[in-house]
From TrEMBL:
GO cellular component: cytoplasm
One GO MF term: pyrroline-5-carboxylate reductase activity
Reactions mediated catalytically: L-proline + NAD(+) = (S)-1-pyrroline-5-carboxylate + NADH + 2 H(+); L-proline + NADP(+) = (S)-1-pyrroline-5-carboxylate + NADPH + 2 H(+)
PANTHER family reported in the protein's UniProt record: PYRROLINE-5-CARBOXYLATE REDUCTASE (PTHR11645), PYRROLINE-5-CARBOXYLATE REDUCTASE 3 (PTHR11645:SF0)
Cell compartment(s), UniProt: Cytoplasm
Binding positions (NADP(+)): A69, V70, K71, P72
Biochemical pathway: Amino-acid biosynthesis; L-proline biosynthesis; L-proline from L-glutamate 5-semialdehyde: step 1/1
Native source organism of the sequence: Macrococcoides goetzii
GO biological process: L-proline biosynthetic process
Entry protein name: Pyrroline-5-carboxylate reductase
Name of the gene: proC
Length: 267
């Protein structure tokens, strides 16, 4: 199977690294290109054994899956490269936030199958939650091949195309929202008495341990929280202070703004 990535940035590299490190695809079967950063392509060639080229005829020839991994605002420059040279074998897989399948087909002037995925950078540790949606003409056997690729870097959920906006907000951007929260937690913790180094290590371990509890425990979130909250104790005091702030409102606002932006990107 020949897989091409147009774009070798943050999201693409998380995915092709996952594909190679899980032995799902050999490096030599993955062809990378980007706008101009040839040093990055050479570095990836020496570390992952991936191929690279700026020759679109060579890239697209016999390519089974062609990942569109550029920012939405760079799609037009990508169209100039792909449109003249694509062929019937190419199944397109776009990870561009917000850009709809019909727009991709129209701009590329193609009736080839197109899938849209919305992964997240947890693909680096094979833990992406990836939403996926297919054009009507995507063959079942090709869907299965693509699901197998997605499994190499996490779990996938098939959704209606319109729901990809929700996936983008909740899990596509989600790691950034959680990192931001953790940053604030570390900043606040730094105002207590531990050294900054100890605080950083302690909070990282706290986050990892809490995530493992979520993974391994059968208890609900609120039960897990209750188990830490002694009557009249420290946790109750801290939670009561938190409840004075509009935390749910903050996240409603955050997710709605991300979702609205996803809708705007497709226009
Ligand atoms: N980052 C994330 O967490 C997520 C991102 N996405 C989506 O993934 C896409 C890529 O995002 P991200 O990886 O963060 O972006 P990056 O900026 O890290 O990477 C963008 C890549 O696109 C390349 N590029 C730009 N124009 C062209 C072109 N005309 N031909 C070929 N390559 C080109 C750049 O090349 P060069 O370096 O040479 O300029 C670079 O390799 C976006 O559409 C985003 O919506 C989806 C889910 C999560
Ligand atoms: O910020 C963005 O637009 C992309 C999509 C989801 C995560 N990063």
């Amino acid at each position: 199977m020949k897989i091409v990535f147009y774009g070798s940035g943050n999201m693409a590299s998380a995915i092709f690294t996952g594909l190679i490190e899980s032995n799902t695809v050999k490096g030599e079967d993955i062809y990378l290109t980007n706008r101009s950063d040839i040093e990055e392509l050479k570095r990836l060639n020496s570390t992952l054994n991936t191929q690279y080229s700026y020759d679109d005829v060579e890239l697209l020839s016999n390519a089974d899956f062609v990942f569109l991994a550029v920012k939405p605002h760079d799609f037009d420059s990508l169209v100039e490269r792909i449109q003249p040279h694509h062929n019937a074998n190419n199944k397109f897989v776009s990870m561009m936030a917000g850009v709809p399948i019909n727009q991709i087909k129209t701009k590329l002037q193609t009736s080839n199958p197109v899938a849209r995925i919305m992964p997240n950078t947890n693909a680096h540790v094979q833990q992406s939650v990836t939403g996926i949606s297919f054009s009507d003409n995507f063959e079942e056997s090709d869907k299965q091949l693509l699901f197998d690729l997605l499994d190499a870097f996490g779990t996938s959920i098939e959704v209606e195309e319109d729901s990809l906006h929700d996936v983008t907000a909740i899990t596509g951007s989600g790691p950034a929202f959680l990192y931001y929260m953790y940053e604030q937690y570390i900043n606040a913790a730094n105002q207590l008495g531990l050294s900054h180094e100890d605080t950083d290590i302690a909070v990282r371990k706290l986050i990892i341990g809490t995530a493992r509890m979520l993974e391994n425990s059968e208890l609900s979130l609120d039960q897990l929280r209750e188990n830490i909250t002694s009557k009249g104790g420290t946790t109750k005091a801290g939670l009561d202070a938190l409840a004075k702030h509009p935390i749910e409102e903050i996240f409603v606002d955050c997710l709605n703004e991300a979702l609205n932006r996803s809708k705007e990107l497709g226009k």
